[in-house]
């Protein structure tokens, strides 16, 4: 059995990743591919506990290096429990965030820099890299507005608070946004940049085109 393919979706909260990853999984399954969908932080029982700590607004005063270490602890568990077994079984793994997020948020947003993040990735993840990364990068204002409204709705509906990052100042997010663009420019063979304030269907079409090209399949053999 041939090894599967590892695809990640990246971008600021509010960029539309969650919607697009569901649509992409459905598109792949209609074409006979087995897709495994996961997320970071989270995706495992241990990861969900780490996610709660990282995203809860009550987690005040968390040191940037501690925050990064927790992200990688979650990542190591997801690789061992979800990603590697799925790839070994020949599945296409769709992951909502991976090390690019840590480089953008902790390396850029927290000013830790790229080098420490990539070194942690080498040690913790064994150098595992996505085969394809789809980076959704609408304007900063659009992304933040969506994310903050979503968190307000979620908190009101469920009482669950995942707004710690959204409470950051806009300067933090400008650094995140810029670091994402730097990653795309540095690794154009891996990262497909989908930039601008596009509609949901426009983004989906670009995602499907990029994935179909990587998998060498037609975009039209099965209805979308």
Summarize the entry for a quick read.
The chain is α/β, with parallel strands linked by helices and 224 residues long. It has 8 helices and 5 strands.
Features:
8 helices; five-stranded parallel beta sheet; alpha/beta; 224 residues; Rossmann fold; globular
Structure report:
The structure is a single chain. With about 220 residues, this protein is of the alpha/beta class. The protein has a single domain, classed as P-loop containing nucleotide triphosphate hydrolases (Rossmann fold, 3-Layer(aba) Sandwich), CATH 3.40.50. It has helices spanning about 15-30, 45-55, 65-90, 100-110, 115-125, 140-160, 170-185, 200-215, and strands at about 5-10, 35-40, 90-95, 130-135, 190-195. Helix 4 (about 100-110) runs antiparallel to helix 5. The radius of gyration is 17 Å and the shape is globular.
- Helix content range of the residues, please? 55-70%
Radius of gyration, Cα only, in angstroms? 17 Å
CATH topology: Rossmann fold
Instruction: Enumerate the strands of the largest sheet in spatial order, edge to edge or round the barrel.
Output: 2-3-1-4-5
Count of domain modules: 1
CATH homologous superfamily descriptor: P-loop containing nucleotide triphosphate hydrolases
- Write the element-wise H/E pattern from the N-terminal end onward: EHEHHEHHEHHEH
Low-confidence parts lasting 5 or more residues at pLDDT below 50?
none
Which outline best applies?
globular
Structural class: alpha/beta
Q: What is the CATH domain class? A: Alpha Beta
Q: How many helices?
A: 8
Kindly state the number of beta strands.
5
Estimated share of beta-strand residues: 5-15%
Mean of pLDDT: 91
């Amino acid at each position: 059995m041939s090894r599967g393919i590892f695809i990640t979706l990246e971008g600021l909260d509010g960029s539309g990743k969650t919607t697009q990853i569901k649509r992409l999984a459905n598109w792949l399954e209609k074409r006979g591919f087995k897709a495994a969908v996961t997320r970071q932080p989270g995706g495992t029982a241990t990861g969900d506990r780490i996610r709660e700590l990282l995203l809860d607004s009550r987690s005040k005063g968390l040191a940037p290096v501690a925050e990064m270490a927790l992200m990688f602890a979650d990542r190591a568990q997801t690789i061992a429990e979800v990603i590697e077994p799925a790839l070994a079984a020949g599945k296409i793994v769709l992951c909502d965030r991976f090390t690019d997020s840590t480089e953008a948020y902790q390396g850029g947003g927290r000013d830790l820099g790229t080098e420490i993040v990539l070194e942690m990735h080498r040690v913790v993840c064994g150098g595992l890299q996505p085969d394809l990364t789809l980076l959704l990068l609408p304007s900063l204002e659009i992304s933040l507005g969506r994310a903050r409204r979503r968190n307000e709705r979620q908190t009101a509906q469920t009482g669950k608070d995942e707004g710690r990052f959204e409470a950051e100042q806009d300067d933090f997010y400008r650094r995140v946004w810029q670091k994402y663009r730097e990653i795309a420019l540095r690794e154009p063979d891996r990262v497909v940049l989908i930039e601008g304030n596009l509609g949901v269907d426009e983004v989906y079409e670009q995602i499907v085109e990029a994935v179909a090209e990587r998998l060498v399949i037609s975009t039209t053999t099965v209805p979308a």
